[in-house]
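Mods, move this if it's the wrong board.
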Amino acid sequence: MNYPLVSVIIVNYNGKMLLKQCLPSLLETDYPNCEIIVVDNSSSDGSIKFVKENFPTVKVIQLNKNYGYTGAVNSGVKYAKGELLAILNNDITVERTWLKELVKVILEKPNAGSVAPKKLLMGHPQILDGAGGRINILLEGVDRGYLELDRGQYNNIEPIPYPPGAAYLILREIASKCGYLLDPDFFMYFDDPEVGARLHFLGYTTYYVPSSVVYHKRGASGGHLNPKNLFLFRRNQLIYLYKVFGFAIFIKTVPILLLLNAITSFYYAFVNRDGRFMGSLFLPLLQFVARFRSIESRRKQLQPLKKCTTQSYLKKFSGELLLPVKLNSAMLNLLVALMRLVNKYFSYVKLDVPPITSIRVVKNPAKIEIYNI
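Not the wrong board. Structure tokens:
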């Protein structure tokens, strides 16, 4: 087997306790030709000192401020020497052969641009954290198989729409072609669906590799739902929608997104007793408009590089909506009725995309329910 140099890039922000688990695991990796780079977003918890004192072989890039996840990854790419780049959250630990299995597939599969491992929940290795990314027309980017018991149902190498951002391997040449690996406008969240779409349009395929296994402490690096995170996620959805699919699809889809965002903003504000969630109702759209020149510039930059049609990627979309919370019967019936209206709307505006045909309610592995639309 050929062993090209792999640069493992880990983004850190006040994650010293996570690095205590992540780095020893990576140093046990059974791969003879890799470098490990920690890019620190100006942490204040002693992360840099900890890494330098305890892991002298790990390269450290100390940024002068918090540039977000995308900015930190792009900084790491500038210093990386590998022709392959492994992007990892600091809340990941790995099995010894994780990297060797990913490299094997990305070298063997035709047109492979990125590969993603099987993710298991840290501390619960029988439960899936994810088996590759999937996305639907409501721009819900989630992990396939989230919280399912790992019974081998995702044990085949197969193409997926995008590599989940917590852990994946990607060709360095993607950054060379585009001028960046992750879109700088995103800061953090939703950067991984954009990578998957961009890979597709450039003529590459993303593969899921079940023989590569990592463990994820979900939510430890990015934090849990709060008004700021929700704002960033929704703003980046709008950037993704326009940059990837253009004005015609954007204008057909954005009314539905704004409607659903309004409903969920009221829900989060009510459940959390926090009116700040209402700020995520219109602020994402306002910031999208404020950044439009930059977004339009990157969209135009991508156009001449496209080798596939927009419609070819829309066909990769899923027809399933995932809910990580349990709804009572009345709310569930309302949601089913709303999804039927959404499907009729997209049919009316002639948007040829897989409709939402089912709702998966996932609270824990013992309570996964599927409802047909």
